Structure prediction request, 354 residues.
Amino acid sequence: MIPVQNVYYMLSYAFRTLNENGYKSIKTEEFHNIGELCASILIRGVSLQLKRGLGQEYISETEALSSPRGRIDISASIKDRTTARGQLVCTFDEFSVNTHMNRIIKTTFMYLLKSKISSTRKKEIRKLLVFFGDVDTIDRHLINWSIVFNRNNQSYRMLIGICHLVLKGLLQTQTDGSTKMMDFLDDQKMHTIYEKFILGYYNTEYKHQNVKASAAMMDWQVDDGYREMLPKMKTDITLTCGDKTLIIDAKYYEHNLSEHMGKTSFSTNNLYQIFTYVKTKENMLSKVPHDKVSGMLLYAQTEQNGAFNKEYQMMGNRICVRTLDLSGDFVSIRKQLDEIAAKYLQVNVCENSS
Prediction:
């Protein structure tokens, strides 16, 4: 089980906003479950957003009005007989705080109020909800999470990310139709955080050491240029420093190893995947001076399978399959990630990780 405090550190790299001054005190708090952590982050984040002002946008409204505005809907006015009351049905745009993102935040707060979090945090949430009086709630199953962020709403990116964790990762529907807040995130949500955390760590801590970290896209290296209907290849983490490249495929499972006829082994599909990434990248770089590309399957360590660290030489490339222990304090997690950078990119171990 990953300590809740470590989940905070992982989130702080996945959502860089959490490294800003307004969130620093969260590091010193103690949390009994993930719900408490998410509630604390949202309370702090929404408080900061209120100082900037809740985001607003033009929302289309349809209403019967005595003083017409916008577009008059004659058919609806006749059907509803509003003319008898001296009104016309009008459709107009209203600049409002009742936006989709504010609805998501209010809905998340309402669920948190029904969950097992401290009374102190519930009191803080109720104080914040006063500012959401003109905002509607929304059915969590109908939320559109495909939100386009820009410089005008960038401050909402982390808030919506935390809301997504609560509404999609922590809520569990009971047999009687009610919902229960879970104490932990499921493997699917933790996999996303785990992957973004590793990418965010190298992006943040090694940007001054000429290490480029990205979720790089690659094209299939076809002989005749024909790629119709071929899917894009997207790596979890590609680290490049000078003439060295390390491709990391982050894996978060309950069981890391397969067992067949008494023999324990790594996943065939995962090995095929990382090997394909490595050989494709190597082929892309074949025309420029470059060391051999390395690949790594980086599993989150589990109690069932324990730690392992194996390295293989495959057709001229190093392929490593190892675990990352997330159960200790964050200093030990940082040390493991720094050792990977030192070994495969030959950069100095980062000394100022935050």
